[in-house]
Amino acid sequence: MMKKSAGLVLVIAGGLWLSFHVIGGSQAMAAYPERPITLLVGFAPGGSMDLSARSLAKAVEKVLGQPVVIENKPGGTGTVALASLLAQNNDGYTLCATPSSVLIRVPQMQKVPFKPLKNFRPIIGFAEPPLGIVVQNDAPWKTLKDLVADALSHPGKIKYATTGVGSTTHAAVEEIAVKEKAHMIHVPFKGGTEALTALLGVHVEFGALTSEFIPSVKAGQTRLLATMGDKRSPKFAGVPTLKELGYDFVNDAVFGIVCPSGLSPDIVKQLEAAFAKAAKNEQHLAILDNLDLVPLYYDGKQFEDFLKVNWKKINAHLIATGLIKEAATSPE
Amino acid sequence: MNGTITLPFFKADHREIMDIRDIISGIVCLFISVFVFTTSLRLGVGALHDPGPGFILFWASILLAICTGILFGISLLKKTEPVLRSNAWNGADRRNAIIVMAALIVYWLVVPKFGYLISTFALMLVLFGLGRMKPWMMILGSLIIVLLSYYLFDHLLQTPLPRGVLRF
Amino acid sequence: MDALSGLLYGLSVAVRPENLFFVFVGCFLGTLIGVLPGIGPVGAISILLPMTFQLAPSGAIIMLAGIYYGVMYGGSTTSILVNVPGETASVVTCLDGYQMARQGRAGPALGIAAFGSFFAGTIGLVGLQIMANPLSRIALKFGPPEYFALITLGFSLITYLSYGSKLKACVMALLGLILSGVGLDPITSQERMTFGILNLFEGIGVAPLAMGLFGVAEVFNNLEALSSGNIVKVRITKLFPSKLDWMQAKWAMVRGTAIGSLLGILPGGGPVLATFVAYGVEKRVAKNPERFGKGAIEGVASPESANNAAASTSFIPFLTLGIPPNVVLAVLLGAFMVHGIVPGPLLIKDHPDLFWGLVGSMYIGNVVLVILNLPLIPLWVQVLRIPGKILYPLVLLFCLVGAFSINNNVFDILVMIIFGMVGYLCRQNGYEGAPLILSFVLGPMFEVNFRRSLLMSQGSFSIFFTRPIALGAMIFSLGLAMFPIYKLLGKRSKGL
C-alpha cells in the first residue's frame, strides 16, 4: 500500500513537472522564427532550381538562426509546389522557391488553380539560370541549324525533353518550331535531372534544359548547341545564343522566393532582410558560379514589378507567335 | 494459390459465400466509377497521340465498372446459397468502432480551436473510457500521455503541434 | 567500383561510430514497431523524418532503412505469440507460428523466424550488391515505355498474387489508381477531383493514406477485443530449433528466400506479397500439406525468409531505377529528396558513399537484428503484455501525430481518419488494402510514363512492343493477366 501511494506521488510530481515545462515552453514563445522553416521547390532534386535554392537556404539559415528544410514537390511544371504553398498555414514557416516562369509563363499556357500575381508575395529574386539546347555527344547534329534541318526533313521524328509544359525552355523550342514551321515532339519531365537522364539514354533527340546540363557537357556526354541568354555564356564562349541565330527569344526567367500574400508584414520584412543578406554570402555565390547561374538581386517590390511587366511582355509575345489566343489563367 | 486457409481476422471465407455485402460494395464501386467517368470526360480524355488529364481516369473507371459488373454477376448467380447476415451485421461488435470514429472526427474538428493538449486529453479520456478503467486511472493516464507526447513531439522532435485559442 | 570493393568501402562507411549508432537505433526502432500491432514502418518513418533533416544524409537514410527491414524481424514475434500480425508482412506467419506457440514450441518458432530472416536478408543483400551496379548501368536504357511496361507488370503482379478474390483485388487496385489521380495533373496542371480543396492540389499523401488503411483500420478492427491480448503463457526456453526442425525448415528457407528475392525486385512486389506467395508454394510442394495451419515449421520459416529477402532486394529497383516498389520505400523516397538525393541511374555514380554505405549498413543491421531479436525476446514479450486498452489508444495517438507531422497540417489527420474507416469497411467486406496502396504508389509513375510514351510514339502502341525490355515485361504481364481467365474458363467448361 505504501509502495503504491509512493508511486502515485511520483507520477503526479512528474506530471506537474512536465506540465510546467510544456506550458512554460509555449509561453516563452520566442520571436519569429522559433522553429525550422520549410522551403518548397517545384522540381525534382538535382536540377538548377533545387541546387540554387539549397545553397540559398544554407546561407539564410545562418542569418535566421533556424534550419531551412527543402521539400521537393515536383509536378505540373512547378505549379504543384505553388498550389501546395497556398494550402499550408500562412505563418511564415513555409515558403516556395520558384522560377518566375512558373508564375508568369506557365499560367498563360495552362489553366492553374491560383492567381499568379495576386496570391503570392515575392521576397527575393536571386539568380538567372543559363538555358541551353543539348544533344547526345555522338549525335549527328553539330549545330542547331543541322538539327532544325533534320526536323524539317523528318517531321514528327525529333523528340525533345524539357522540365515541363509551358516552361521557358519549352517556349524557346516552340519559338523555333513556329518560325521554322517544324514539327517536333515535346516530352515533358518533372525536373532537369529526369529530362537529362532521358537524353543520355537516347529516348529523346535533344533536351532544352536549365543549367543541369553543364556537368554532362563538361564530361563530354552531351554537346551544347545553343544558349538562350542575352549574351553568350562566359563558360561556353564558342556557343551561339538563340538571338544570334535569328530567333526572337531571350531567357526571361529569374529564380526567386515567394510567400503567400497576406503574411504578416513584419515577418515579410524580416524575411526580405534575411534573404538579402544571405544572397551576398560568399559560399552561396561560389555555388551559383559553379552552377553557372548569374547572381542578381531583386527585393520583393522589384521582383513584383518584374513579374507584372513580364507577364504583359510574355502575353503579347505568345499571342503574336500564335501559341495562345489569351492567357489561360487570369493573373489577378 | 491456396484459398482454403483462413486468415485470423477474416471471419468468413469470402470466396465461398457471396453475400449481401458484395452487392452493397458493388453499388458503391459503381457510383465511384460513374463519378470518375464523368470527371474524366470533363477533364478531357485527349487523343492517343496526346493523352489528356482524364485519359487514365477514363479507362480506370471503365475497367472498374466491368469488374464490379462481374462481381455483381457472381453474387447474383450464387443467390441461392445461404447468406451470412449474422456475420456481416453484428451491431454489438461495431459499437466501439463507431464511437471511436465519431470521436476522431470530433477531434479533427476541435483540434485547431482548442489546441493539441485539451483536445487530445479529451480524446484519450474517451478511448480509455471504452477500455473500462477506473476513473482516476483514466484521468491520470490521459494527462500523463498527453503531456509526455507533447513534450516528445513539440520539444524534442520539433513538430509544431496545433495550438488553440489559449496559446497552448 | 565492383561489387566487392564497393562492399568493403561501404562497410568502412557503415562502421563509422555515428553510422553504427544509426544502424542500431534504426534496427531497434524497427523491431519495436514490428512488435507493436497497428503502428507500422510508414507511420514511424513519417514521425522521425523531420528529426533526420539535420543529420548527414547517409546517417539519416541508414537509420530509416533500418526501421524498414527491422520491422520484418519484429513482426514475426507478435504473430507467433499473440496471433495478431505486428505488421502486414507477417500476417501469414500467424497461421503456423501461433499454432506452434500453442503447442509449446514458441521458442523454435521465434528462433527459425530470426535465423530464416537473417539468412534471407543476407542473401538478398548479396543480390542487391551484385545486381545494383550493372543494373544502374543499363538503367539509362529505361525510357518511358520501359518504365510503363515494368509498372504494368507490377499491376498484374499485384492482382495475380494477391490473397483472396482476384476480382476484389482488381477493384482495389483500380481504386488505388483512381485515388492517385487526385490533385493537379502532372503534365498539364489541371485540377482533377480536388473539389477545390487546396490541400488536395498536391494529391492525397501516401503516408496518411497508408497509416489510415493499415494502422487506424487495425485499431478499429481490434476494438472489439479491448481486453489484453491472449499471449501464450509459455516460458520460452529453447530458442535454438532442434535438428529435426532444421531438416524440415531448411529448404523452406531457401525457397522463401528465392521467392522473396525475386518478388522484391518487381515493382508492386515487396515483402507483403512475397510472404503470401512463399506460404502458398510451401503448401503446394509439401508432402503432407494438411500439417499447415497446425504448426508446421515450414509455414513460419518460408514467409519470414521471404519478407526479409524482399525487403533487401526491393532496394534494387528503388536505388537504380528510382521506382519505389512499395509504400515504405515511397515514403523513404521523401527522405532521399529532402537531402537532395535522387534514387535512379545516376545514384551510384554520384553518391557512392551513400549507396555503398547503405548496403554495408544493412549487412551490419542484419547481424544487429539477430542479436536484438533472440536474446531480447523476453523484453519484446513484456512489450506485448501491454493490454489492448492502453496499447490501442497509444497507437491511435501516434498515428494522429504522425499524420500531422508530415506537413504540420490538420488536413492530413482527416485523410487518415477517412481511410481508416475505408480500410475498416473494406476488411469487413473482404477487400484487402494492399492492392489499393500498391497501385496508389505506382499510379503516378504509371500515368506519366504512359502519357510520355504515347507522346513519343505519336499514339502508336507499337512503342511498347518494339523495344526489347518493354516487350519482355509486357509479355510477362499479359501472361499473368490471362492465366486466371484461362483457369476460370477451364473450370467453367469442366463444371457446366
Question: Quaternary status of these chains?
Answer: heterotrimer
Which bin fits the share of residues in helices of chain C? over 70%
Low-pLDDT residue intervals, each spanning 5 or more residues of chain C: none
* Topology, number of strands of chain C: 2
Gross morphology of chain C: globular
Structure commentary:
The complex is a heterotrimer of chains A (332), B (168) and C (496). Helix content of chain A is 43%, strand content 18%. Chain A has 332 residues and is of the alpha/beta class. A 6-stranded mixed β-sheet of chain A has the order 2-1-3-10-4-11, with helices on both faces. In chain A, helix 2 (48-64) packs antiparallel against helix 11. Chain A is globular and about 75 Å long. The model of chain A is unreliable at 24-29 (pLDDT under 50). Chain B is mainly alpha-helical and 168 residues long. In chain B, helix 1 (20-43) runs antiparallel to helix 2 (55-77) and helix 4 (91-130) packs across helix 5 (135-156). Chain C is mostly helical and 496 residues long. At the B-C interface, helix 1, strand 2, helix 2, helix 4 and helix 5 of B face helix 5, helix 8, helix 9, helix 11 and helix 18 of C.
Furnish the topology, listing elements before pairings:
The complex is a heterotrimer of chains A (332), B (168) and C (496).
Chain A (H helix, E strand, L loop, with lengths): L1 H26 L9 E5 L6 H17 L3 E5 L6 H9 L6 E6 H5 L1 H4 L10 E9 L3 E5 L7 H10 L5 E4 L5 H13 L4 E4 L3 H9 L5 E4 L4 H5 L3 E6 L27 E6 L4 H14 L3 H9 L3 E6 H22 L11
Parallel strand pairs in A: 1-2, 1-3, 6-7, 6-8
Antiparallel strand pairs in A: 3-10, 4-10, 4-11, 5-8, 5-9
Helix pairs in contact in A: 2-10, 2-11
Chain B lengths: L19 H24 L2 E2 L2 E2 L3 H23 L7 H4 L2 H40 L4 H22 L12
Antiparallel strand pairs in B: 1-2
Chain C lengths: L2 H12 L2 H19 L5 H8 L8 H26 L10 H10 L3 H33 L5 H18 L4 H15 L2 E2 L6 E2 L13 H17 L20 H23 L5 H15 L12 H16 L1 H7 L5 H12 L8 H4 L1 H22 L3 H8 L3 H20 L2 H19 L4 H25 L10 H28 L1
Antiparallel strand pairs in C: 1-2
Helix pairs in contact in C: 1-6, 1-16, 2-4, 2-16, 3-4, 3-14, 3-18, 4-5, 4-6, 4-12, 4-14, 4-16, 4-17, 5-6, 5-12, 6-10, 6-12, 6-13, 6-16, 7-8, 7-20, 7-21, 8-20, 9-18, 9-19, 9-20, 10-11, 10-12, 11-12, 18-19
